[in-house]
Write a structure and sequence with these properties.
Elements (H helix, E strand, L loop, with lengths): L1 H18 L3 H9 L1 H4 L21 H10 L15 H11 L11 H7 L1 E2 L19 E6 L4 E6 L5 E6 L9 E2 L5 E5 L4 E6 L4 E7 L3 E7 L5 E8 L2 E6 L5 E6 L10 E7 L4 E6 L4 E6 L6 E3 L5 E3 H5 L6 E4 L6 E4 L5 E5 L5 E5 L4 E6 L11 E5 L2 E6 L6 E6 L4 E7 L7 E2 L6 E5 L9 E5 L5 E5 L7 E6 L5 E6 L4 E7 L5 E7 L2 E6 H5 L8
Antiparallel strand pairs: 1-8, 2-3, 2-35, 3-4, 5-6, 6-7, 7-8, 9-10, 10-11, 11-12, 13-14, 14-15, 15-18, 16-17, 19-20, 20-21, 21-22, 23-24, 24-25, 25-26, 27-28, 28-29, 29-30, 31-32, 32-33, 33-34
Helix pairs in contact: 1-2, 2-5, 4-5
Length: 512
């Protein structure tokens, strides 16, 4: 209702607004603003800011304006606008706004919705499948999620989402609720037992990802536009606190990522533009950390506030990171490829890792190899997986792959780790690495010419599910021991699959 009213007001003002503006902006206001907002912040359609469209090439933007977008309300304008006019709109969308966009608490509260009856539903699933072996499959091709039975590999339910989910769905500890973040700032809570949305709120204009506290009481969201951290009530997404991200000199920053660290009772956030890591305790009881002097310091008690910020200052930025299983160390990479190991308790860097290319540590995994825990990471620029000894932080070996890749996954009950080559010419292959010998055991090509990516395991590690990342894609199920195909489930560009058990029980082979 609110969005429809805003659209009517925009229609009334469009002729006046367009009259005094350049052609591209006038065309945008005339044809696009009713759905996407005069400020490009988004209404019924998603935000159309440079940050929101960062993954789309100019040709793809032009094609969408011309032909529309399948399975959405986005119509094509090829019959109304000339190619030159469409190109002008595409160039206008790539321009940053004249003023830095803001999204504050009042705007968040205005967007907040708790759906009628959704907070008072039965606490038992409406289906017979194992609720801890469900997969939430993000179908980015038409902005839907499929809830998949992890035993029979049959869809249970399919529902629409906001545009461009990002950062991976996150579960409450018992697995009943899943929290979703869209690239243009919408946070949604969904009840997997009752297959319905509970609440939603828009917390920013460009969101990086979210994290859920181990007790399920809080949700932390990291935004790149504006650069803020937002704390929500895990029950109904009521906004509790908004923090502008800046260093002590006032230099603002975008948020690169946020995660929860259950053993520490805290959230961890890293920043894109300042060399700092922030730790924010969320437990009601005091959490103690050593400070520089080495003495114990009750950070929460001294601050006297909820979610106080503990700053860990670094010499170099961290843009991408992984936490070790004990949540004692953060291993972070910068855009220039440098990697540093930060001891979170001590609050300082303890080692540098001499890795080349651009390690994708957010997809890094660990496992026990003999009596040593190793960390393995794919590489966004090179065809290799680097394996590191986490005791002395030295590289053990580089496993050659068919090209640069994005995801690496395994399971504590599997002898294999799977890695894609989705960023190179061999994008249609996934390689399976023996975790003991550190050699490629098999190369799998599920659909020649089509991108293969993102593997996730069932709760027991018996099956591995792989995505064919295309509009006419599928989730392909493999026997994780024999590496033979078991089944295919058609999907619309299934960009990610997230198993409830593995996520909530912190399986060592998946991201958290």
């Amino acid at each position: 209702m609110k969005q429809a009213l805003m659209g009517v007001l925009l229609l009334v003002s469009l002729p006046l607004a367009a009259a005094g503006m350049g052609e591209a902006q006038g065309l945008y206001l005339q044809h696009c603003a009713v759905c996407h907002g005069a400020d490009r912040f988004g209404l019924t359609g998603p935000a159309l800011l440079p940050e929101s469209l960062a993954r789309l090439r100019r040709a793809a933007v032009i094609d969408t304006i011309s032909a529309g977008r399948a399975a959405t309300q986005m119509q094509g304008f090829a019959g109304q606008l000339t190619p030159t006019q469409i190109a002008a709109i595409a160039d206008y969308l790539a321009m940053p706004p004249a003023e830095l966009p803001r999204w504050e608490l009042a705007q968040m509260k205005a967007s907040h919705t708790v759906f009628a009856g959704a907070t008072d539903l039965p606490d038992k699933p409406r289906f017979t499948a194992d609720p801890l072996n469900l997969f939430v499959v993000v179908e980015s091709g038409d902005n839907h999620i499929t809830v998949l039975d992890g035993d029979r590999f049959e869809p249970i339910h399919r529902f629409p989402t906001h545009f461009a989910l990002h950062g991976g769905p996150k579960y409450a500890a018992d697995g009943r609720f899943v929290y979703l973040a869209s690239r243009d700032g919408w946070i949604s809570k969904y009840d997997l037992y009752n297959l319905t949305y509970v609440a939603e709120i828009r917390v920013g204009l460009n969101t990086r990802n979210l994290a859920v506290s181990a007790d399920g009481r809080y949700v932390l969201v990291g935004n790149t536009l504006p650069g803020t951290l937002v704390v929500l009530d895990g029950y109904d997404l009521t906004p509790l606190k908004v923090m502008a991200v800046a260093d002590e000199a006032g230099q603002g920053s975008r948020v690169a990522a946020v995660y929860t660290a259950p053993p520490r009772g805290s959230f961890i956030a890293i920043m894109k533009d300042i060399p700092e890591i922030w730790e924010l305790p969320y437990t009601t009881e005091a959490v103690a950390w050593p400070i520089d002097s080495g003495s114990l310091h009750d950070y929460r008690a001294e601050s006297g506030e909820a979610f106080p910020v503990r700053r860990i200052r670094l010499e170099r930025h961290v843009d991408d990171f992984v936490l070790d299983p004990a949540y004692e160390h953060l291993i972070g990479a910068a855009r220039d490829g440098t990697v540093q190991v930060v001891n979170l308790t001590a609050g300082r860097r303890i080692a540098n890792l001499p890795l080349t290319g651009m390690p994708h540590l957010a997809s890094g995994i660990t496992w026990m190899r003999g009596d040593r825990r190793v960390l393995a990471t794919p590489n966004l620029k090179e065809g290799a997986v680097t394996v590191i000894d986490t005791q002395d932080w030295k590289a053990i070996t580089r496993v050659p792959t068919l090209g640069p890749g994005f995801f690496m996954r395994s399971h504590e009950n599997s002898r294999y780790a799977w890695v894609d080559s989705s960023l190179g010419p061999a994008r249609d292959t996934v390689q399976v690495i023996d975790k003991e010998t550190l050699e490629v055991a098999k190369t799998i090509q599920p659909a020649p010419g089509k991108t293969a990516s993102h593997v996730e395991f069932t709760r027991d590690g018996r099956y591995a599910l792989l995505s064919i990342w295309e509009m006419d894609g599928a989730v392909v199920v493999y026997d994780a021991q024999t590496l033979r195909e078991v089944k295919r489930v058609p999907m619309v560009k299934p960009s990610g699959k997230y198993n409830v058990w593995n996520k909530t029980r912190l399986s060592e082979g998946t991201s958290h």
